[in-house]
Design a protein that fits this description.
4-stranded antiparallel beta sheet; signal
């Protein structure tokens, strides 16, 4: 495995993002607090008692400008969000014709470990996050969703906004697309049946990224293990990546 990629993967594990996301309800001391008391929440922003919710304020949005998105913590405990340079991985999605949602905002991972951290949102507090909108794009039905936050899988209500075709194409081939992609998508890249080009950051070996994703624990072991055997046989240069993916699977089993 390339030294630079290995360094980034190690920082991902240490910082609790990606497939290694920490429990967002876990108490971790000395986290940077964020947010304001619920009493300061603007009028018309709904929230649900006992829950963590995400709301996009489309009513006050201006075309071509970011949408105000409110993360509201009315649970009984503080929550901790993984972040990268202040970005908590809130991403723009659009609804497809079949009713499913697809991410259309690309993500560039940082090569520097100092970029990654955690942000604590105290109970009975909220924080406002910028929901990305391109300066130009096609009108579409959109929403915003938190990525890479472990069990905290939240999306906003739907609204009308803009989607950039170029950004959508980049989002379909970035590292996050592989990290969160379907088994078939990841399998095809890991086995070389499909090639994609990531233009967003320093991670250029997408086969390597896909092999790491196979070790994430997201997919059934009975599908992954024979596939890793096949990749190891066909691509001797990827044996180190295959070994590391296997070690991740073993680590997941030990934690069960």
């Amino acid at each position: 495995m390339k030294r630079q990629t290995l360094m980034v993967l190690m920082m991902v594990m240490l910082c609790g993002v990606g497939s290694f996301a920490a429990d967002p309800f876990e108490f971790i001391p000395n986290q940077r607090p964020a947010g304001e008391p619920l009493a300061k929440l603007p009028g018309g922003i709904p929230s649900t008692e006992g829950k963590v919710t995400l709301f996009a304020d489309y009513a006050r949005a201006v075309k071509g400008q970011d949408v105000d998105v409110y993360l509201i913590n009315r649970s009984d405990r503080d929550i901790v969000l993984g972040s990268q340079d202040g970005d908590v991985y809130l991403k723009l999605e659009t609804r497809k014709e079949d009713g499913s949602w697809v991410r259309v905002q690309p993500h560039a991972f940082s090569w520097c470990g100092n970029s990654y951290g955690r942000m604590k949102v105290k109970k009975d507090c909220f924080c406002k996050i910028n929901g990305h909108q391109p300066k130009e794009g096609k009108p579409a039905t959109i929403r915003f969703r938190l990525y890479m936050q472990g069990r905290l899988d939240l999306a906003t209500d739907a609204g009308e906004g803009l989607v950039s075709e170029k950004e959508a194409e980049q989002a379909a081939t970035d590292v996050l697309a592989v990290e969160k992609g379907s088994f078939e998508f990841v399998r095809d890249i890991a086995t070389g049946a499909r090639t994609i080009v990531n233009t967003m950051d320093h991670n250029k070996d997408m086969q390597e990224i896909a092999i790491m994703a196979l070790g994430s624990g997201r997919f059934p072991k009975e599908k992954v293990e024979p596939l890793l055997d096949e990749i190891g046989r066909r691509f001797p240069g990827k044996l180190a990546d295959v070994t590391y993916a296997r070690s991740r699977l073993i680590e997941k089993d030990l934690k069960k």
